[in-house]
Structure formats: structure tokens, C-alpha cells
């Protein structure tokens, strides 16, 4: 018996998940969709799926057992609260919400409900390379992790649309979340430094160096470059006490030709993380079918919100800005894995 | 509407495919099983699946729309012919059959039926690394392929059970099939050479060098080592006119420690090709749902049989032994990709 | 006609250079030595070499055309001034001097002399890998350098002897010098951060992260780990506007065995930089034979002193500490290459 | 006291060695030269060097203690015999001689003399990568070597001048010599196979596969491609009983840009083996200064001649052609290292 899913928001990422849930994954059916552009929704919806006028209607629909939220960020809080109100499992694309207060409201609601219902869309945790890296760290044979270097290079961003705040409140969240997860740690403070500006991005402040000071004392050293042109190049390296572990090159054909001995670099995040997205939903479907959620939780979405806020403050102040989280509810005790 | 599948043979590989069809893949259900060990079948069969007394019964079952054959090799021919007789799509593990005559009988039957029904289990063609390598070759920017080196290293084989003929009639078929597919070519002749014997395998003749002379003149240079101990190490490199293309290392964590800077090597074929097996069945399900077959065909199974025979002759004679194939039926015109 | 050289100081590094000048390199002879341990000097000195009672005597010796200083740091200033006073070319191991005032006194003397006489022992500039990296950066095809990551990992340091100041005033100088040289830039400010402490070094503050803010705005992000146990692992990576360039793995045999596919990592700096030391002296001999010096200059030694001072201050203050250099004399105009 | 050397032949390779002996290496002086083009010799000879009218005159010159032969192959035998006659150490570029009989005459002369005088120019044995590979094999921890794959790819050869025989009697000698040395083995038989012809070389028969059957039973599998266009790409991989060891990539800067993540490949043999040539002469100078020779011997030159002959016969016959060597004189007992 497959999970009956409704999707809110059919923009680029919503359409991608629709395709994934319809054609790639098993034990799931898309039975309802809602989009502010009803015409678009009608043209995209799979045969037999209900076209809902509002997210509210979709969440309340009898046919819908679980919800996938791909609407824009500011709409997430209300939709999440609605899902929790009716006790339906929900997958929510990042950002979970757009303010600390919003995160706390969602967290309070879920804690009051008493069972995890929300999975937040940090897909890197489902990537095989990151999982293998974490297994090496967790194994402990290299000693404790001391420094994690996270490199986040994007070929390009839409000029004008991508502002100088976005490396910190949009791009950084992936590095911040994967750092917390890899190191089994929380972020205590954030510093931001701006190197010489790349001329690739016009007025955009790019690249950016961010230092995340973890509660354990480990430091996460992040490079964010969003106009590097040559590809989507994600790197991660953990310096431990007696060894170093790093993400591998992606497994591209090794070509020897006039350009040297070489391997192609992924063009964009879709190419790089396509399997991680599939796996993310595979695990969501399994948990949602049990009426609950797995993977990144509201706690993780809350942490991401705090880090983005602290990073923006740190960019202004030039100083280390603290991240201070509320006590962690028992509900989230085991979700950092 | 999912494809209703029956599985014949629930040994190691049969159980693995059962798990795959039940838990990993979408649009498919296992509705019947048959195994000579009826008790084993009963304990393994998914809830609701029919336990058939014979392969014949399974193939004829009204519930079964498509068949997966995982029985032992000598039984394949009869089961394939039966599937073709009733017009049901069938996936057949290698070896397709065990004699040239058997291959011809299956081919004649399928040609008479007039539509492809059989997919043979050469899973390497579905592996992402091989597909990327083929794309580079087919692209033509490196010129024509002249030499293909295929390295097939196995950690160990069961002593006593794995005979000195098996590198040539069991292991080699993967290298032979992938060579034909990568180079869009056929095999015209086979030579076999035996280097100094490894003491790892006792009396076993190991390793083996095989030269496959392709119709185009390209030479495939195969190393088969079946007791290399350190892992399952599959390599492939194509020397073209103006460049070389090779399979990459598998994407394992890069560890720097007292053993150097290093990446783990897969332990066995399951670890190495797990995704290829999934993809193989994904494409089979799609084709079988249309009442036909895709990927490696009876023609490819026929070629594999001829190459194994020629290799055994070449091992005896020390000379080049010819592979001569019947004319190719139109049915198979496009199956080599 | 070979260059007649005198060596001051026959400790570990002095003996290594003696061997190099005697057995490896051409166009040079060691004609005099001086060491505070006269007995050691006598036992080590090559046949026919003069045993000088003092550095002063060696520098003034008629036989000595050029001097190599391998004494301990605090003695360097006086010996350098003496060499300049008599107009003899001199190679001086790092640290050039141990105070900013000392550096200025040596610089003033050399500028007054009017010709470069001093080469400082920053051997990395002579390493083929660093030179190739610099050629890529200088070429400009990747755009301007924005971030340089320098990783400096040492297997171990002598417990007790290596203090928590030494990462900053001893180890860092190599990263600082190579950064100035690679980027054709000067250092304007220094920040120091201490990650979670490694238990490998007992009370030692290790590892260390240093951010060097260059005059251009580029940021150099340094990791210093001095007890990493697994080897001497030097890494460098330059993020430019449209590409990234990095030091390669050292060319060690690629072994596939039970530990994976792997390459050995150098054990220590001697193994890693043995060829760089040879080349450093080759170029020194060529310049000294012309009565002058090449490579790293007093200006570079002065910069190193300022950076070490600023790093120690930054470790205390937790803030960015400025490096402010005097105007650069014309004598040093072309020495950054 | 430096070794007084005379050079016969100042073509491309002779000039390169002249430069090496004059400017790079220590303990050696070029005191005489001879070339059939006396004008060229006069313009190139270092100051003070004697211009000899004939090789004979140079070899007999009182000033000359040791000889470097860079003349064309057919002249080598007479010059080597002359050097042996006067008991002078001699370095001889490959081919040592051009016939089996010639090799035997030189060997008989040296054996009669009673001490090694001749070093043959197989420079690969002095390359650090090959030496490291041999150390791994000799160490024995991977078990015995069973298969050695030697890949010899050349960017291009002069059209018209480079004939279809030359892969076998000119290029192959390097692979054959390094195989004997790496495996501590001798060659017993040779097979040659011609894959599909590359269109890069016009009528030239290229590439070539050669199988060398070693006395131990190990097989050396050689790919020779002489018009691969993209660079000079030398590869070597030894399959042992429990592991595999291979030459590494050359240590070129790792660049990430629009062409992928990549490292440059050497352009030609001079770039690839420049340090090996230096080391080859360093060791020759050391041995010649003691009145003898080290490294590749007349025995190795003799073996190379036999292999080239057998390879040419095998190309004709399509069969395995035997290499049968005379018993090895005691003089050469330890020279395979």
C-alpha cells in the first residue's frame, strides 16, 4: 500500500520532487497538488490527482496522508503548523521557516503533538559520500574531529536576484547543517570574513569565509564561492587527531587528452545530489508511512535559522556572534544522526 | 499498475533480486516463486505470493506477467523457451544457456515470436561508470577505440568449487559482453595466455590473460585474477587514437593516515554493482511492462556462449580461436546501443 | 672554479647542508667550518677544511668567499652584519633574526652596502610543486587569487621542547613566506583561532588556524597541526576567480592492497623537501659566485619576523593584529619572485 | 678531483649530456669532444676542451679518463671495443650495438678485460618513480609479480623517419629493459599483436601490443602507441599475488577549471625523464671515477638486442619467438639491480 502524498508548490524544485515521487520511487503516489498558479498545477498534475485551491485544502484533504512543502519560504510556517494540527507527516524544503520565532512556534507545536512529523530538506545527509565520511569520523580510529573544512563552490548565481546576504542566509545552511551532523555537535558561534571580491559577480560580495565555532571547540572553516564558473564543486575534509578524512572526487571517467589527465566536475547541485534527493525521499516515505518523520528535524531547521541570523550579524559586526539554542526537547534526542 | 513478476530460483542471487523487486524498486510486485527447495521458497516468499511447484507452473500462472530466471544454468534453456512460448517477458541471469545450440534454439524461438522478450543479466551495462565511459567513446572526440584493457580482479573464489575452466566460461563473459557493448563491436577471435601462477589459488590456473580480437581490429586485453585477496577491483581503460578514457576509482572517502592517502576498494561484486543491479531491473520493469525487453539480448547471450567456447579452445590450443556468429536477425539490430 | 664556502653551525641542518655542498652540488667547496662544539666540528669537517674558532674568524677568513649560517637564531644578526661588513654573500637559515629591530638593522646594512648579499632559507620557493603552482597563478588564466589555503601538518614535535608559541613564531613562517611569494602580495593583518585541542600533544595548543589578510584583500587560511602522527603533509590550494589550483600528491607508488588504493605520505620535511634544498643551494651558489644573492631576501626575512610577532599578539588578543612594514627599498624590488 | 670526460657525438642527445655534465653535475669536466661535423663540435665545445678529429683520437687522448658515446648506433661497437681496449670507463647511449654478434663481441671483450667498463643508457632505471615501484615489488609484501603492464605512449613521431619496425627495435627496448630490471627476470619469448591501426600515423603500424614471456612465467603486457597526440604518457603496473603496484601520476598542479579537475601530462621524454638522466650520470660519474661501471651493463644491452630481434621475427610470424641468451658471465651477476 503506497503512501498518498500531496505536494504544495510546483516550482522548479516542486516539479522535480513530483517527478521523483511519480516515476522513481516506490510505495508512494501523488494524489493532490496545490500551486498559486492553478493553470500550471493543472498542466503538471499526474492523472487522477486532486487540484486543491489552497495549501489548507490540500493538507485537510481526506486523500492526503502526507505532505511535501515546496512553496516559498515565508509560507512554510503556516503550512507546517497546519500539518501538525492534523497530525500528518510532512516533508519541508529548506528554509524550514524564516525567523527564530517561527522556528520556535513550529517546534512547540510538534513537541506538543508528541511525535516527530516534520522532515526538513537537508539532502546532503542522504548523500553516499557524506555518509561514508561520517562513518569514518564516527568510527573514531582517526581520533576526534578538530577542524572541518567545507567548500561550497557554485558555478554561477542569477545576477541581481542573488544578493550579498544569500551566501549567509541561503547557501551557508547546507554547510552548517552538514557540519552539525558530521561532527555530532552544535554551533556556538559564527565569524564571517570577506576575501578579495571576485569580479565574476559584479557588486556581489563573493567569496565568503565563515568560521563556525562548535560547542566542542572544533572549528568549521567554510569557503563559499558562488560564481566560480567551472562547476558545482563541493568539498569536505575533516582533520582529526591522527588522520584526515575527505570527500572523494565524483566518479567521472578519467580522460587523458590534450587537457591533461582529468575528470569532469558536476555542473550543478541537481547533478551532484540527484541520488541524495532520491534517498532523502525514500527514507521520508518509509517514516511517513509509519506516521512519523526521520532525518533532519525541526530542531535542525531551528539551528539553521539561528546560524543564518548569527552569520548576518557577524558579517555586520566583524566579530564572533553567538548562537544560543533553547534546551533540546526529548523528541529530538536522536535526530542528529 | 505494477508488473506482476514470478521468480524461478531462490538461491543467493534469486533472493537478492527478490529483495530488490520487493523493497527497492517501484511499479513491480513479486506474485509467484518456484524453487526446487520448496521449504526454502515457502520461508522466503513474500506474503500473498503463489508457491509454484515447477517453473512450468510459474511461467503458466495467470497471475504472472513476467518472469525472472535465477535457476542454475543448465535449466535456463527450457525455461526461456517456455516463456517465449507463452509470450511473457523474461529476465534471465547469466549464463543465458550453456551451449551454442541452446542459444540458437532460444534465438530462433524469439525471432519466430517476432518481438524481444528476453533480457540477459549483464549488469555492467547499467553501471553509471561504464555508461559514462561509453558516452566518452561514442562521442568520438578521442578518435576510434584501438585497445581496451579490462581488468577483472576478484578477492577470492571458493577453493575446489571454482575450477580452472571458470575464468574462461564464467568470469570472462562480463569482460566480453562489456567489450562488445563499449566498442560497438563483435568478437572475431580469442587468445588465452597463462602467466606465472599465483600461489593464492593452490592448483587453480590463475591469473589469466585473454586477448579478444574484435571485428574492427581493436584488441581487448583482459586480465582475470580471481584470488587477489585485497578486494574486488574492476578496471577498464580504452586507448583511442588521440586520448585515453578509463573507469574512475570508486567514490570512497579519502583517508590520510599511517597507511598513506587512500581510498577503500569494494569487497565484492555486490558492493561494486549494487546500483547497476537496481538500474538493470528498473529498465527491465519498464520494458516488460510494455510486453518486451531491453538491454542485453539473446544475441548478446549467444555471443557470450561462443566466446566462452572459443576461450576454452584457445586455452587448449595456445592459438587464436575464431568466433563466428550467424547473421544477426533484425530483431537485434539496435540492442548493442 | 668553485665557490669557497664556510659553514657556521654544524647541528642537524648544518650537517645536512655540509653533505649537500660536499657531495651533491657542483661548483662549490666547503673550505671552513665553525661550531661552538669544536670537537664535533673537527670530526665532521671535510678533509682540508679550516677549523675556525669563531664565526667572526670564519667570516674574515681569506679562504672563505661565501658563508652559510646554520647557528641558532639569536646569533644570526651579528653574523649577518659581519658578512655584510666584509661584502661576502651569505645564506642564512631561518629565522633570519629574532626581532623586528634586528631585521631592520640587517636591512639597513645591506641597503647601505648597495647590493643584495643575503639569501634567507625559505626552501619551499625552490620546490618544483610550489613553482608549478605559482606558474599557474601567475599565468592569470584562472583569474585573480582570492583565497589561499595552506595546510601544514607535522607528524610530531618533541614534547616539552616545542612550545605553544612555536606554531606561530617557528612553523607559520613557511606558510607566511610562501603565501607572499605565491600571491605576489604582502601581509596586512593576522588572526589566530584555536580549535579543539588535539590530545596528541598533551598541553600543547594544537592545532591552530591562522588567517593572513593580504594587502590585496586575499585571505590566506592556514591550518597548522604539529602532532598529526601520520606523516608530514603539506597542502596548498588557491581559489581564484574562475578556477582552483592545488599542490599535487607526492609521486609515490600507487599500491592496491588490503588498505585500499593508496600512496605513501612523506615522513618528514627532509623527505618532502630534499630536492628543494638542493635547488635552493644550486641557485644560491650561482648568485654567490657572482658576489650577490637571489631568492628570499632580507625583506622576506623582515616580513617573516613581523608576521610571527603579529601572530603571537593575535593569539593573545583574539583580534586581528596589523602587520605594518617600512617602505620597500629598491634593492628588494624584484625579489618577490 | 673531477672526472675528465670526452664526448663522442654532439647531436641532440649529445648536446643534452654535454650541458648536463658541464652545468648540472658535480665532480666531472668535459675535456674533449668529437663529432663528424667538426664545425658544430667547435661551436659547442666548452672552453678549453680538446676538439678531436676522430672517436679513436678522443678515446686515446691522455686527457680523457672516461668516454660518453652519443654517436649513431652502427658506430657504437667499434667505439666500445676501443674503450675496453684502453681500459677506460664508458657510457653508451642506446642501442648499445645493432646486432647480436656485435653485442657478443663487446661482451667477450669486457669479460676478457675482467672488470665492468660499460654502462648502457637505459635511463628509466634511475627514475625515482620506477625505483620506488621496484622497491615495493622487491619488498615482497604483495607476493610475487605475475603480470607487468607497461604503457609507452608518445605524442608523435617524425612521419617518414619513424618506420613500422621502430616500435619494436627502438621504442620497445625501454619497456623490455625496465621489465627485466623490475621483475629481476629475463625474457624467454616474445609475441607481437597489431590492433586496429590509428589514423594518426598514416601508413605506420601503430599501436602495437607486445607480450614478453619471462623466464619465471610472468607476462609483460606492453602497449606502444607512438602518435597518441596528447602527450608522453608512461605507465607501469605490476599485478602481484596479493596486490597491485603502479607508477603514480607525475606531480603536476591539480587544476579545477572548465576542463575538469586535472593534471598536465608531460609533453615528451625529456620533460618526463630529465631527473632520471641527471641521476644516471651521477651514478656513472661515481663508478667511472673508480675505474668501473654501474647500472645497465653490456649484458643488458645484449638482452635488448635479442629482444628487438625476436620482436621483429614475432611481428612477421605472428607466433611466439624465443629469446635465448648465452650463459651469464660472473661479471654481470649483480647488475640486474
TrEMBL record, chains A, B, C, D:
The protein's name: Inositol 2-dehydrogenase
Catalytic activity annotation: myo-inositol + NAD(+) = scyllo-inosose + NADH + H(+)
HAMAP family (UniProt xref): IolG (MF_01671)
Source species of the chain: Acidiphilium multivorum (strain DSM 11245 / JCM 8867 / NBRC 100883 / AIU 301)
PANTHER family: INOSITOL 2-DEHYDROGENASE (PTHR43593:SF1), PTHR43593
Role according to the record: Involved in the oxidation of myo-inositol (MI) to 2-keto-myo-inositol (2KMI or 2-inosose).
Family of this protein: Belongs to the Gfo/Idh/MocA family.
Residues in Gfo/Idh/MocA-like oxidoreductase N-terminal domain copies: 4-122
Quaternary structure annotation from Swiss-Prot or TrEMBL: Homotetramer.
Keyword Oxidoreductase assigned: yes
EC number: 1.1.1.18
GO biological process: inositol catabolic process
Pfam families tied to this protein: GFO_IDH_MocA (PF01408), GFO_IDH_MocA_C3 (PF22725)
Recorded superkingdom: Bacteria
Class of enzymatic activity (EC top level): oxidoreductase
UniProt keyword annotation of rRNA-binding present: no
Domain GFO/IDH/MocA-like oxidoreductase as annotated: residue spans: 130-244
GO molecular-function terms, A-Z: inositol 2-dehydrogenase (NAD+) activity; nucleotide binding
UniProt keywords, alphabetically: NAD, Oxidoreductase, Plasmid
Amino acid at each position: 500500500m503506497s503512501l498518498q502524498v500531496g505536494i504544495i508548490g510546483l516550482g522548479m524544485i516542486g516539479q522535480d520532487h513530483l517527478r521523483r515521487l511519480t516515476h522513481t520511487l516506490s510505495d508512494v503516489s501523488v494524489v493532490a497538488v496545490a500551486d498559486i498558479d492553478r493553470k500550471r498545477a493543472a498542466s503538471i498534475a499526474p492523472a487522477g490527482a486532486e487540484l486543491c485551491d489552497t495549501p489548507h485544502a490540500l493538507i485537510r484533504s481526506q486523500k492526503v496522508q502526507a505532505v511535501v512543502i515546496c512553496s516559498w519560504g515565508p509560507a512554510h510556517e503556516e503550512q507546517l503548523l497546519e500539518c501538525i494540527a492534523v497530525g500528518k507527516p510532512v516533508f519541508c524544503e529548506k528554509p524550514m521557516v524564516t525567523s527564530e520565532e517561527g522556528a520556535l512556534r513550529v517546534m512547540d507545536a510538534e513537541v506538543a503533538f508528541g511525535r516527530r512529523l516534520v522532515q526538513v530538506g537537508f539532502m546532503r545527509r542522504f548523500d553516499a559520500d557524506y555518509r561514508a565520511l561520517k562513518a569514518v569520523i564516527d568510527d573514531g580510529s582517526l581520533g576526534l574531529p578538530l577542524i572541518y573544512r567545507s567548500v561550497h563552490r557554485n558555478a554561477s548565481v542569477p545576477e541581481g536576484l542573488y544578493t550579498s546576504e544569500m551566501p549567509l542566509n541561503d547557501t551557508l545552511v547546507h554547510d552548517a547543517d552538514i557540519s552539525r551532523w558530521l561532527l555530532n555537535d552544535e554551533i556556538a558561534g559564527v565569524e564571517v570574513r570577506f576575501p578579495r571580491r571576485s569580479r565574476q559577480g559584479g557588486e556581489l560580495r563573493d567569496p565568503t569565509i565563515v568560521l563556525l565555532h562548535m560547542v566542542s571547540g572544533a572549528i568549521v572553516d567554510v569557503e563559499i564561492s558562488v560564481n566560480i564558473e567551472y562547476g558545482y564543486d563541493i568539498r569536505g575534509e575533516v582533520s582529526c587527531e591522527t588522520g584526515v578524512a575527505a570527500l572523494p572526487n565524483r566518479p567521472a571517467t578519467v580522460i587523458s587528452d590534450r587537457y591533461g589527465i582529468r575528470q569532469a566536475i558536476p555542473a550543478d547541485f541537481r547533478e551532484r545530489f540527484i541520488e541524495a534527493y532520491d534517498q532523502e525521499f525514500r527514507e521520508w516515505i518509509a517514516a511517513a508511512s509509519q506516521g512519523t518523520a526521520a532525518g533532519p528535524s525541526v530542531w535542525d531547521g531551528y539551528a539553521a535559522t539561528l546560524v543564518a541570523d548569527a552569520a548576518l550579524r557577524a558579517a555586520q559586526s566583524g566579530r564572533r556572534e553567538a548562537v544560543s539554542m533553547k534546551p533540546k526537547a526529548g523528541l529530538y534526542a536522536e535526530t542528529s544522526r
